Amino acid sequence: MATAAPILGETQKQREMEYGKGMQGEKEEMVTPGEVLGKASELKPGKGAYVAPYRNTDILYVYSSLTGFRRSLSPSPDSPEQRPTVEVVGHKAHGAVPEPGSVVLARVTKVMAKMASADIMCVGSKSVREKFTGIIRQQDVRATEIDKVDMHLSFRPGDIVKALVLSIGDARAYYLSTAKNELGVVSADSTAGATMVPISWTEMQCPLTGQIEQRKVAKVGS
């Protein structure tokens, strides 16, 4: 019995090493943003991956946040976290990638009755190299009186907005929110072509003509 423990220990290490080799040797597969990588109870999200509930359930899954190759990394034998780490590595060099929870700067491209679309330009302080589309839905413009939100009085094409990434939508677009004081329009040009000055939470003024235009304004200095 005295020699059993070392033998079992060696056997366990051998199994872990073989398991690690198997994970590292796993064939890489191409995945796209929003694609399910596995259950969060079985996998730990790494680079290019995030955790979110599956549809309208309480079950957490790991999703891909970019286009690239899926790769699994086994934990070290002495790590308390024994879930493999799954990550997505881009097939080419890329800039910053939006992920749920990221704060982004985006340029509004189109405003409709129920939503506005925008091109994401920066994630935090880092610029993006690929095209990422953001969608601000009517219910995500502000936190109060959601049913009274008028999209055309909140944003206009060309506005620069600071927004929070909520999730990846079905059409490979990112759902964005401006429902916090520090989020919303940070820069906008008036109809006269001048950069407007915010004068309230809902108004910006043209310094040339004095004309006031309505917007969902981000808190100054945020």
TrEMBL record:
Gene Ontology molecular function, alphabetical: RNA binding
First-listed, main subcellular location of the protein, grouped into a coarse class: nucleus
Location of the protein in the cell: Nucleus, Nucleolus
Keyword Cytoplasm: yes
Biased composition (Basic and acidic residues): 12-30
Entry keyword set: Cytoplasm, Exosome
SUPFAM superfamilies xref list: Nucleic acid-binding proteins
Every Exosome complex component CSL4 C-terminal domain range: 126-168
Alphabetized InterPro entries for the sequence: Csl4 (IPR039771), EXOSC1_C (IPR019495), Exosome_cplx_N_dom (IPR025721), NA-bd_OB-fold (IPR012340)
Name recorded for this polypeptide: S1 motif domain-containing protein
Record Pfam families: ECR1_N (PF14382), EXOSC1 (PF10447)
Organism the protein comes from: Jatropha curcas (Barbados nut)
Sequence ranges assigned to domain Exosome complex component N-terminal in this UniProt record: 30-70
Biological processes per GO annotation: RNA processing
Cellular component GO terms, alphabetical: cytoplasm; nuclear exosome (RNase complex); nucleolus
Entry keyword Cytoplasm: yes
Domain of life: Eukaryota
Disordered: annotated segments: 1-30
Annotated CDD domains: S1_CSL4
